[in-house]
Structures are given as structure tokens and as C-alpha cells.
Amino acid sequence: MTLHTAAAIMEEKMKILVTGGSGMVGYALQKVVKEKKRPNEEWIFISSKDADLREMHETRAIFEKYMPTHVIHLAAIVGGVFKNMKHTCDILLTNQRINLNVYQVCKEIKVKKLVSCLSTCVFPDKITYPITESMLHDGPPHPSNFGYSFAKRSIDAMNKCYRRQYGCPFVSVIPTSIYGPNDIFSVEDAHVIPGLINKVRMCKSVNTPLVVWGTGKPLRQFIFSYDLAKLVMWAIREYDEEENIFLSVDEEDEISIRELVQIIVEEYGFKGEVVFDDTKTDGQYKKTVSTAKLRKYLPDFKFTPIREGIRETIQWFEENYDIARI
Ligand code: NAP
Ligand code: GFB
Q: Containing domain of residue 22, as a range?
């Protein structure tokens, strides 16, 4: 990059609106912005308290209030496999309403870039591995994620259709399973890591066995929320391809739920019995994605080792138990 282009990039004023700014990813992004914000950037984080994005008039009002040049769209109803199964229709409809409103308003106010989120769990269940970004529509998603998946897949359709008909610069990043501070820790609705952290805390306090759902055999690539936030910041600044990109730890960092449980109980100092309840679903067995495309851009990006990330998440949970979403 020449000095001129570097200076030009640093000069361009960026007013970045982040929807879903109060969630786990939004919380991590606020932390990263505090450390890495550039002088030409203004960052605005909104939550449902600022506007219910299911309502078009509230969506339009908040976007017209700020008139952002760039948008990072995180807002969604999110949860673990059990929440997704229980509320599959509500999640489909709510997330589609939010997405339709945000996309329409981003087109109306002519944002210079919109970056939204898919998820590795919305890819076909019967697929070859590692999964690449181009496989999104090669088959139905796992039944446990049906509603959530089709709301996400329609984001991909909107990216392409808004771009082809109206030239809108809309693109998505595709995070793998994320964990970290300020996640949802409710036993029923959480993803596996926060759900187990909350369970271990309870088992330690009343000295009962830890019940892990499923067989423990499924495999996952887990990304620490602060690493994800750094990659989302990189995407809004530098990533301009039409096609989506996976934001995940590398294939070799994939672990089983059983290995994950071992890390959580060791880091929490839980000495009690661990039992696996295989009457509960395993969900998707694996969803291993390739990070070849990400590594082409960021060959030296260092991910937080999972043991360190879990230790930090446990510490946050212990220090913020009274305000955590449980
Ligand atoms: P989260 O912690 O549940 O946060 C969701 C955010 O969306 C909150 O800020 C929430 O605001 C906002 N929101 C929900 N309904 C809204 C509405 N009607 N109007 C306005 N805002 C609303 O979710 P997250 O884990 O940070 O996920 C962020 C994004 O990453 C989502 O798009 C998700 O699909 C994607 N993703 C997550 C994972 C994962 O493992 N967590 C993996 C892949 C992709 P309030 O706080 O006011 O409710
Ligand atoms: O994180 P999780 O709920 O969702 O479940 P997915 C991961 C695995 O952990 C499953 C097992 O095999 C569960 O059986 N598991 C064991 C547990 N104990 C527990 C527990 O106490 N709680 C939970 N929740 N699981 C998610 C999607 O799929 O993938 C999200 O549901 C998101 O929407 C994410 O997109 C990326 O990893 O199966």
C-alpha cells in the first residue's frame, strides 16, 4: 500500500453503527474499539432499548438519526441448540423481520458498506469437509438449526440481490461458535460453553454431578469473542469482496465437547462427577470449516488458546454474576 493510499484511508471519515451492540459480540467489539479505534472513525453501538429493529419505523428513525456511513449488523435472536429447536419459528420470523428492515434502510441511506453475520451452523449438514464459503446452499441445514439457518441464508440472498440490482456494498462474515464475556449463560438457552460454565458453578456450590448433554462426541471450532471482534473490525475496514468469509479458528483447533468439558471443569476447579446424558441431542456432529480464505488475508492472526479464553470467561462470569444473562 502506498503512503498516499494509507493516508487516504486514514482520512476517510467512517461513522460505524453497530446493531446488537449490547450482546456478547457487541460487548467484545466495544472493548476492541476502545483499544484500536482510529482518529477518522466514530463508533455507535445500539441495542433494542434504542430501537426495536423488528419495527420498520423504529429502524428508519434510528438510522436516520445517526446516518452511518458503515454498518455492522449483529442484532438477532441467538441461542444454543436447545433454544433453536424450541423456538425455531419465532427465531426465523424475528430475525427475518430485523434483517429485512436493516437491509432496506441501509439501501435507502446509501451506506458505503454493510457487514452482517451468518454462522457456520447454517451450512448443509450432509456435506464434505472442510466446508468452504461457497457451500452455503448445497443442501438443507441440520434440523436443530432450521429456522435460524434460513433467516441467515436469506441474508446471503439479500447481499447478492441488493448488490446485483442496486449496487449495494453488502457482505457477510461467517463466525464459528463464539464464546466469551457477556454471553447468554442460561442453562436452557445458552450455547454449550456458557451453559456448562453456569452449570459447573451450580454443581460446585451444591456438590452435585455435572450433567453434560449429548454424548460429548460432537466436534466444534470455538472462537473467543475478543478475537472475533478484532476480525469484524478488520472486515468493516478492509474486506471488500462480494463473497462471504469464515471467521474461525483453524481446522486443527477443532475439539470435541468431551475435551471442552475437561477444560471447563479443570479451569473452574470442579472435582465432582461428570455424567453424559445421551438422551439429549448432540445437534450437528461437526461443521468443520476451512480458514484458507481468512489466512490468505491474515496469515499471522493469533487466536486466543481456548483454555485462556475459557479462564477469562469464567472470571467475567464470577465477577458479573449478578448482571449476567442467565
Ligand atoms: P447476543 O449476545 O444474543 O446479542 C444479540 C443482540 O441483538 C443484543 O444486542 C440485542 O439487544 C440485539 N437484539 C435482539 N433483538 C433485537 C431487536 N428486536 N431490536 C434491536 N436489537 C435486538 O448475540 P451474539 O452472540 O452477540 O451474536 C451477534 C451476532 O453474531 C448474531 O447475528 C449471531 O447470529 C451471530 N453469531 C453468533 C454466534 C455465537 O456463537 N454466539 C455464532 C455465529 C454467529 P438487547 O440486548 O437489547 O436484547
Ligand atoms: O453450542 P450448542 O448449544 O449449539 O451445542 P451448536 C453444542 C454441543 O454441545 C451439542 C452439547 O452437541 C450439545 O449436545 N452440549 C453438552 C450442550 N452440554 C450442553 C449444554 O449444557 N448446553 C448446550 N447448549 N449444549 C449452534 C447454534 O449450534 O452453533 C447457534 O445453535 C450458533 O445458533 C452456533 O449459530 C454457531 O454448536 O450445536
A: 3-180+221-250+287-305
